[in-house]
Each structure stands twice: as C-alpha cells, then as structure tokens.
C-alpha cells in the first residue's frame, strides 16, 4: 500500500508530538481511582404481636428490596441492613410483615412504616428506629387492620402524604372491629383458618372491599347466621378479642401528659370531604384538673361545663374522672327489670308495694378512659365509659329507707378521633370577613316550650367594619374582635368565641366557647361563610327519579364498606316539581302489606302529606310547606325554610335551615300550638341517586312506593295509609 504525502506528514507529526521534549525516564500519572461509595447502616427494632408471634419471620420491603430477620420467643426483633449511599432515594415506602411458624403459621401481620426518608428522620443520628421513635414498628392486629382499610380507600400508598390521607379516612370503629376479627382468627383455636394466612384470607380481590372479603370468609366458614349476623359463639369470641385488643399495652399506644395539655377535641370519625358537626371539648391543665362538657347536655341546649380530673394511668391510657353530673329519666320498669339491674334485694323491698310502672332513674358519668390506637395529631381512640344508675322509688310515692339502690356499668362505648391538645390550632391567620353562619345564644320559644329559653343556634351575621355584628336585617347583634386566630363576639351578656380547627372547603368544624358570668360551655359546631353569588342550589332543586335532593338532617353517615355512599338509613330527600308541588322520600323497613318491621328488607317510600308545596321567596330563599288534616282532632302544618349559604366545590350546598310547626285544634277550648320545631342550623343538600341502592330501589319499584313509579300492587287505600302514618 502506498501512503499519500498527507498521510506521511500526519504520521511524522504524531511521532514528533509523542517524543518531543521527552526522555526515557518520564512517568505518566494515572487518573485517581474513584472513591468507593460509603456504606450506611440502618436498623428497625420492634415487636410482632397480637399475642407474641414467637420466632416470626420479619420482612421489610423497601421499594423492590427485601430484608429479613427472625423474631425471638417474645416476638421482639431487630432488623439490620446496610446500603450504599445514594442507592436509596428516600421515597421508598417501607412495609413490615411478620409471618408466624408452626402452630402460628396462619398468622401474617403487616405494618406500613412510611417513607425511608421519614424513618431516617425519626431514627436520628444512631440510625436505629426504635419503637419509642415510631409506634409503627409494632406489627399487630391493629397495624394490619389499618393497612388493609387504608388500601381499601383507593388511595395509592406511595408517599407519606398519601398514607396520611388514606389513614385519615379509616373509621375508628371499623379499625377496631377488623382488629378484633384478626385476633380471633390468630389466637382462638376454635377459629384457626384451615388454609392460608389471615392476611391472605382478608385481603380483598378485584373490586371487592375489605368488608366484603371479611363477610365472605365468615359466611364460607359458617360464622354468620341466617340473618347475616355473627353466630352467638363467634360474637362472644369477637367481643373478648375486642376487649383484649383495647387492654393490651403491646398493641395499643401510649399517651403522654405533654401532648394532652391544653384543649383536646373528641369527635366521631368523619369520612373524606366532611368535618365533624359536633364533639366534646376537653380542657386539661398541668395540675391535673380539667373542664369538659356536661355529658347530659347536647345539641343546641346550654349547660355549664363540669369539673373533672385527668391523668395518664400506669397503662398509658388517658383517664378522665368526672365531678358532679347527673341526668334523669323515667323508664317503664318491672320487678324483673329491677332484679336484673339493681339486684334481688331491691326487688324484694319493692314487691309488696309495687309491681311495675314508671320510676325515676338518675344516671351519672363517673369516668371515661381513652385508649390510643394510632399516633398523630388526630389519634384514633377507643372510649370506655363508666356510669352509675341510681333507682329512686320515692319518685312514684313509694317509701324507701336508707341509701337508694344503684349499679355501675362499664362499657366500651364508642370509637372516634381525639385531636390532641398540643396540636389543635386555629385555621385563621387573619380576621374573618363578611357574612357567616355562626352559633349564637338566641332566645326562642320552641314548639314544645311554654316560654322562651336561651339556645345555641346558628345565626346569619355580618362582621362589619368597625367591629359591629349585624343580623340579616342589618340590626346590631353585638361587637366582634379577633386575636390569635380566635373570633370573639360579645352580644348582650353573652360572649361567644370561635376557633376553627378542621376544614373541608367552605365548611369548618370550630371550637365554640360560650360564657356569661360564671357560666362557661365549650363544644364543637359547624360554621360557614356565605358566598351566595357563586352558589348553585337553584340548578339542583328539580330532580327526576331515581334522583332526589338529599338533605342530611343531622349528619352524613357513610355506608359500611363504601365511604363514598351514604348509609341507606340516613337517606332523606325531596322531589321538587316545576309546578311548585313537593314530596318527601326516605328509607323504611315497614312491610307495605303487613305493616311489620322487616330487617334487611328496606325500600324507599315517598310520603305525600308532610310537604306539598315549595316556592322561591327571595334571591336565595326557599320555603317548603305542608298540611295534614287529622280528622276530628287538628290540622297540622309545617313551614320549612332554607337560606343558601354556599356551594362547595364538589356540588354540595350549605343552607341555613329552620322549621315552624303549627297545631290548629278543632276544639276551640284547646289552645293552638305553634313555634319553631327545627331550630336554625346548617344543613347540607345534594342530589342522591336512589338506584345505587340496588336491592332497596328494586323493592321500591315492586311496591310502587316512589313518586312516578306505578304498580298495581298499591291502590288508593295504600296511599292513604302511607299519608296518614305518623311521622316526625
């Protein structure tokens, strides 16, 4: 091959550049070797227990990595692992599982810890996440139930924020009940699953919900009776497991006095998109004293708070011991009832002079015990209440010597959410403006009252510049001020303050505190700001079957297993027609032919006589009226009114609702009755599709009990019977 002159020149240049100015002793420095990545270590310490899961295999899943270890005989474990710096982003969600062995091979429990980044922050400099740094390292029936129910919300658990969102939607009662089912299957030898692990058996498949998966398992294994209820034997095991779960300090979490100081709020669980409409306010002082709502006062009634004492007991539970409080009732009792509750001696004393009748019973709340099930600013808690019931035979003119008979009842009464004192804060960072629906002390003579009384009811008020509070008519109601996130209104002798602590769009839950002289009362209530210009209730008034305009009379209650759907028993709605006619629809279990109550055979019924007419009486005002003639006795009429407050982003409408009842007696010698029956309150309206309740709606079509639905099974006599049935 012959090379060109250009090629030869290039070769020469290359050769020269390779040896120019060099000698044979020159050393070329190699590039430095890369620094090896730092090896980091991390450890998780905890326990696997519903009762200790001895020698369980503990597995941690971080993204696509898994690390395993073995627990000791007491279920205690330490899970160590190393990783190269930079190989984990910190976003990986960490899930722990515990798999039993041998006789406990059917036990499989899980706990969702959170993101690896958050675990590092909790662990601190030593890189060891101990149980006192994260309660989630305890793998229990409660953590397993919480994980299953959080997944059931449909929220993808791919971040700390998503995990918090999903767990907030989990109802405490459902959490506690599922925990008890898991414990029965884990520990009760009469109900040990024959195949599979508990987690496998209770994890839903496809579109199935956790509730449906649990019910399927119970039904398949003969643990439900013909009515679909727990068999007596399994229910007894379930109740025992419920108590054991609540009373097991290895499963439940510890309260600290520090986190409880200040104002705490206890409410029932609320589903997504809602905030609590009512609740209990518990004010805890550092000296162990407390003030809290009188257990006998509720709703719009006024009653001064009671004194109490509080402490975190040796089992790390919150215990509140009440001061003096009592409420009375007059139940109809028999000697058998007296024997059952107050003992044979009390019945023997009464027997010679009394057999049955109405007797006064005095009920007092002695103590309330809160057990923490989950951590967080909003801790899910179980509530045990101790009450004393005292029988007073002297109320019926019966002679009684000595101390009145009494008995104490201690029950796991409820489950809900405790907003902890050190984390309850206001949502207002500046003074509220404009027009609001706020609870204020108002003098009202109700339908059943013989005179006017003070009640705490919602009012439409405007917070005017300069500090004036104006009512709807523009008349002065008092003065307002704002400081540190709290609105205060002075009206007459009353002072009312508002601290909103939870919010869903324009609907708030607020701590409402009332005072007058030595009188002090605190409770929880809804408040909302008016924005009528952007409200759209007018667009939703007219609905056609299967839709009605639903009104959530007291509060929206989610159906079990589907938090997006209302419970059948709470559906209550109206059908408005263009011509001004109106009817009212609700769910019932009364058989349309026999008139007997039949459980699980619900259907919808349109009631024609409660309301017959509606009209718009102002730009944002609606009036619903109805009249019933009670032949030979009286004419009963209603007048219900709505003032639009706001429309939320999801289409729900807030209204200020009130209602007046009138009884016009035929007997001229009998005084007519009239007055407010529904005191002013915030109600929530939105369209409801009745057909989503497939079985109940189908029965309604068969019975012909809905407006616009015809059936030859229902004639005019049936319609008249429906119309004349007593209703509230």
Please state the overall shape, judged from the principal axes of the Cα atoms: globular
Radius of gyration using CA atoms only:
33 Å
Distance between the termini: 112 Å
* Category from helices, strands and their pairing: alpha+beta
> Based on DSSP secondary structure assignment, what is the total number of beta strands?
38
- DSSP summary: helix tally: 14
Strand order of the largest sheet: 33-32-31-28-38-37-36-35-34
Low-confidence stretches: 1-23, 708-728
Describe the structure.
The protein has 728 residues and is of the alpha+beta class. It folds into 4 domains: 39-246, no CATH class; 257-293 and 308-414, no CATH class; 434-530, Lipocalin (Beta Barrel), CATH 2.40.128; 534-724, no CATH class. The termini are far apart.
